[in-house]
Amino acid sequence: MSSSSSTSYYANGYLCHCGARFVVRTAWTIGNFGRRFRGCSKYKVQEHCGYFEWIDPPTCVRGTEIAAKIIEKSSKLEKSVLIAHEMEVVARGMEAKAREKEMMARKKEKMYMHALVVSWCLIVVLLVSFWYIGQVGKMKKNIEPAMITHCVVVVLL
Predict the structure, then answer these.
(1) Does this UniProt record's set of keywords contain Transmembrane helix (predicted)?
(2) Can you give the residue range of the structural domain that contains 14?
(3) How confident is the model over 79-132, as pLDDT tens digits?
């Protein structure tokens, strides 16, 4: 755990040794758990003057004992959150892959549907063609004897 909180605020116009405003932070160490202190606002950012002053009295023995348990539980919770986040990332990846597979399946389904429609159209065209050829064949059979008789009649005359 870090020795102070990441959130801080400026006090009203008070300055530290280097002339910058000091900030009030909270300690999260076992020995000083929850104690507020004033410190240079440049701490952990750039060179600082080292200004430091406790605001709260020292933590009692019971507070130190409880702090260790709270820090331990907090660490476990942080690990659980990290694991949950990793699981969420994996789940989102799996979801994206599933969506991609679904989209590909829909494209294939659409392609197969088009192929089915085209094949049925071809079958209909072939059936109509065969029917038409059959009708023409029947007409030729009916026309040929009549034409032969007509040609014979014409030749005899």
Answers:
(1) yes
(2) 1-59
(3) 999 999 999 999 999 999 999 999 999 999 999 999 999 999 999 999 998 888
Same domain, 14 and 38: yes
25 & 47 share domain: yes
Q: How many residues make up the chain in this entry?
A: 157
Amino acid at position 102, single letter: E
| The last residue of a domain, from among 11, 31, 59 | 59
| Nearest Cα residue to 43 out of 67, 8, 13 | 8
Helix (H, G, I), strand (E, B) or coil at 57: coil
Structurally, the chain folds into a number of domains equal to 2
CA–CA separation, 117 and 111 (whole Å): 10
Q: Which two tokens stand for residue 77?
A: 């919770």
